[in-house]
Amino acid sequence: MKIIGVVGARPNFMKMAPICRAIAESQHTMLLCHTGQHYDHNMSKVFFEDLGLPKPDIYLGVGSGSHAAQTAKIMAEFEGIVLEHKPDLVMVVGDVNSTLACSLVCAKLGIAIAHVEAGLRSFDREMPEEINRMVTDILSDLLLTTSEEAEPNLVREGVDAAKIHFVGNVMIDSLQHFLPLAAESTVLDELNLEERGYSLLTLHRPSNVDDPDIFRGILESIGEAGRRLPVLWPVHPRTRKMIETFGIDVESLGLRLVDPMGYLDFMRLMRDARLVLTDSGGIQEETTVLGIPCLTLRENTERPVTITLGTNRLVGTDPEAIREAIRDCFDGEAKPHSVPPLWDGHAAERIVGVLDQMAEALP
Ligand code: UD1
Fold first, then answer.
1. Ligand 1, atom 37: nearest CA belongs to which residue?
2. What backbone torsions phi and psi does residue 7 show, to the nearest 5 degrees?
3. pTM, 2 dp
């Protein structure tokens, strides 16, 4: 089959890399399309280098904008690409605006859509990603899922169970493939950190960083409770803007800011952290596989298996709850944990298996 694979934003790249490798060894061909939703060197290019992703065949260069403007721009550009290349299938990953925009274009043009990481639900429609996930899933022809709870989520919304394939987690394919290389990263020495001698923080959700009171409350509690160990914080561009807008003095809170990290350096930092604090989706999964305690600074998660089986704890954004959870991580018993089913480094191969079946059924 002729496939177009779509990436747009940072969390897409490590999901697409193993799929690109597996498709290169299959009967199928894939053109890689980068929408340009993320465009800074350290939000995009460094990931192509670290992950050995091929240079995109197609670059749309859409950049930032409001949700409507960004989504519309991707749609307008991507429509021409689909009409020109006439793929049998478009493969989208995750839940970013690029995922939604390209799915909508294909649905209207009658092009089959495969959604990798289908069926995750936070049940919180205030999250832009929840809207992107729901719409993409309802439009998709192949729903490739990472965990068992995805199927009932999808069936409840009217998706035909025959379209759903539990293939496992491609993000973990990348983690396993690149851990040996990440182990060689010199980032700890460069930052003068010791193994298990620091906490790692990431924060970028609009619900956490766009409200000055919530944002300050989170940072003050982490700064205070984290005082026992340095807190390293690779800062997302949108978060940096909010720090400047609100005039928050992060250094005085004891937080150590650095620019966003490349994939290999960040894997090394996660692997050797004492504790990870985050509002990201993928990091909840990666820490679960690495066996590192993770405190998720959100009221809900679309990845509940990281809590039931993994190292993740949902802490919310109440400052006292954050302080208590950090204390508990430092002084309490470690949470028992295991790796969820099919997070085994072979999800991309299973995806190719599903594509083979689909190709056989084509006229
Ligand atoms: C996007 C995804 C989110 C994902 C996150 C990972 C959506 C709705 N959100 O959020 O699910 O967790 O990526 O990073 O798709 N910016 C830069 N340089 C860049 C990219 C962005 O400076 O390379 C700044 C711009 O000011 C932009 C802002 O960050 O306006 C937000 O970027 P955007 O792509 O809209 O969403 P993210 O917050 O990055």
1. 238
2. -130, 155
3. 0.97
